[in-house]
Amino acid sequence: MFKFLKEVVAGSGSALKDFPYTIGEPYASAWGSWTHHRGTSKDDGSPVSIFSLSGSNPQDRHLVAGRNGVKRLRTVRHPNILSFLHSTEAEVPDGPAMKQTIYIVTEPVTPLSENLKELNLGGTQRDEYFAWGLHQISKAVSFLNNDCKLVHGNVCLTSVVVTQTLDWKLHAFDVLSEFDANNETSNSPMLQFEWLVGAQYKSMELAKSDWVSIRKSPPWAIDSWGLGCLIYELFCGAKLTRTEDLRNTASIPKSLLPDYQRLLSSTPSRRLNPSKLIDNSEFFQNKLVETIQFMEVLNLKDSVEKDSFFRKLTNIAEQLPREIVLKKLLPVLASALEFGSAAAPALVVLLKMGSWLPADQFSVKVLPTIVKLFASNDRAIRVSLLQHIDQFGESLADQTVDEQVFPHVATGFSDTSAFLRELTLKSMLVLAPKLSQRTISGSLLKYLSKLQVDEEPAIRTNTTILLGNIANHMNDGTRKRVLINAFTVRALRDTFPPARAAGIMALSVTSSYYEMTEIATRILPNIVVLTFDPDSDVRTKAFQATDQFLQIAKQHHEKLNMGDNSTAEGTGIQLRPGNAGLLGWAMSSLTQKGKSSDHGLVSSANSSNSQVSASSRVTSDNQSATVAYAPSTSSSLDQTAPASARSSVDGWGEVENDNINEENGSDKEGWDDVDPFDEKPPPSLLSNIQAAQKRPVAQPKQPASSRSNPPKASKPEEDPLWGAIAAPAPKSASKSADIKPSTSQNDDDDDLWGSIAAPPPKSAGKPLKPAASNSDDLWGAIAAPPPSTKARPLASSGRGRGTKPAQPKLGAQRIGRTSSTGM
């Protein structure tokens, strides 16, 4: 028997050199003759607890009892019983002599007495924590007594340890024995190692060694007495020294006192069953116990119960002991979210609890769960993550964001929900600084290009704002390719006033990234036309931006005059402190209501703030109306733009002027340089007359020779305002739709009087053919067309009226040409 127990205890080896754990410093207290050490695994460095028991020889009775405890701990498994990992027995030198030592390796735990000193709880919080611990120990004792028919024999303060998640667990199984109820008349000891139990913890029948009475008692009689001793030591704050001290109930809570007295009944058969202590006692009905119990059976709850519970959990967590929340509730909540048993509101609670942790612990206990949640298909979880990304985004590592987070977040850019698209867009303000240049250029900017033509005005506006805010995270080539096209071609020509205002502010914020050539030829011409925008806020910002860029141009001019050619190419000037700041998001109904809705009229924002405000509704007139823009100053300005800005990469390049298609320009996914909007209100009558008076007199053109194409008077996009200063265009101008209305090459519409003259007659018929032989015949236009046959008509044969036609012949000769042989 001894050899068998030694082999069981030895485990993987009998020599300490094969012990796969490192033994650390011991704790101050432990049960019996055992020593409780801290320890770590040699494989992965994970923490463990190591219990050691030494004896002078292998037959030492303490070692024999210890081997019984190892065997029992190895075979008995329960959530509230200490988890066994490894054990061994070896000879360890102790000075000149050798000692036989047993080692047990378990999960990392702390003695209960030291845990209570560390937490230092008081009042209601202490009682709630004791209630939770007693609840767990009572379940463990009930399992041993009622389910396994085992008797622990020495339940007390030292036989309880606490895990890192503040779970109380029962150990010290040296005295553990089977309950022998079959031989009631036997007077032999039922507990072989009962001598290990201190006299103050023994019940009256055990102190008298009345084994007959013990066998006639219920299996829980001895351990119920031990539970009473544990309750006394907990609330008195000191170890039990005499059995008579159990009668001192001054420190026992009144709600627990009746059950405490039944546990310590002098009659073994009347002692309270530990299972009844859990179910009936009012002491265990508190917020902490109920909260933990609900989370332990979360999988069995329906969605309504989960939603209601997690919405209340934030307030409950504020009232519970902070250490218990962080060490017990937080890991349970993180596990529930990770495995899908928790609802989306639980994420808010997790982040609230995580905010109470230091930064290093937050990265270890909370961030791994959050990173895994980004892969969730639950839309509610994704929305909650994006709404609170500012609370944890800064703690995410750059590599984690680039490889694990962004690929899942990017799916929201193309989501059917406008609300989720906008949240995804706003999350980039936190995530974009952590992305690599490859991800920004290859993925992020492509998504933003599509969002700048989104059907939701607020999303288009916020896309422009985001581009202005993340411009400093792009490389020089990407900025040169993207920024001007995105702000001038898309934003400044948007029908939504806040989107145009956002484009102006984005250009101002990023002014240091543009060369002087770009400012003069591409930025200023597009901003100046907004100084007479219908929206007052857009006009105000346009004037401010114009002043800013003109000041940059003046400083550039001064540098050129001073001969400073080395710095003349780049601006490098930021006149406003706001250039270095972030643009604020546009407010929209998407973030306020969580769904797409009609947008209302937008109130003008304060021009001193770098923020565009868009209210929750915009009338259908504002959504459908096209804002009129004045054309560019001259086509020559576009031609002087740097060639680098015209390269088309990733859909953001600028195409050549000759290849721009007005009809398809708005459908492109890239930030291509498209023409201004074509629809413009007709100029006033007075302005046309005044412009015509200043124009030099020119000879009118002949209608028959001046137009080689059908009339173009019906095209609304041709603006005659610039005709007075435009050079006459060649008559061979192409009819291609690619010609910009902003150029001065309109050959037909530079007549300023055309807008007030009588309209030309509109004819639906085909144009006359000038090649007709009888052009002086007024009826020729409506005459029947000449016959399609190649035979000459009879009228041209020169015969008289008396000439008879040839007799028609049958057969194949009917279509012969012999009828004209008489000429």
Automatic annotation (TrEMBL):
Which molecular-function annotation in GO is an example for this chain? ATP binding
Start-end of each HEAT repeat? 366-404
InterPro entries in the record: CIK-Related_Protein, HEAT_type_2, Prot_kinase_dom
Segments of skewed composition (Basic and acidic residues)? 665-681
Q: Where is this region: Disordered?
A: 594-823
Domain Protein kinase, by residue range, is 2-284
Q: Name the residue ranges with Polar residues bias.
A: 617-647, 702-711
Q: Where is the composition biased (Low complexity)?
A: 602-616, 724-742
Superkingdom of the source? Eukaryota
Concerning PANTHER family, the annotation shows: N-TERMINAL KINASE-LIKE PROTEIN, SCY1-RELATED S/T PROTEIN KINASE-LIKE
Protein name as catalogued: Protein kinase domain-containing protein
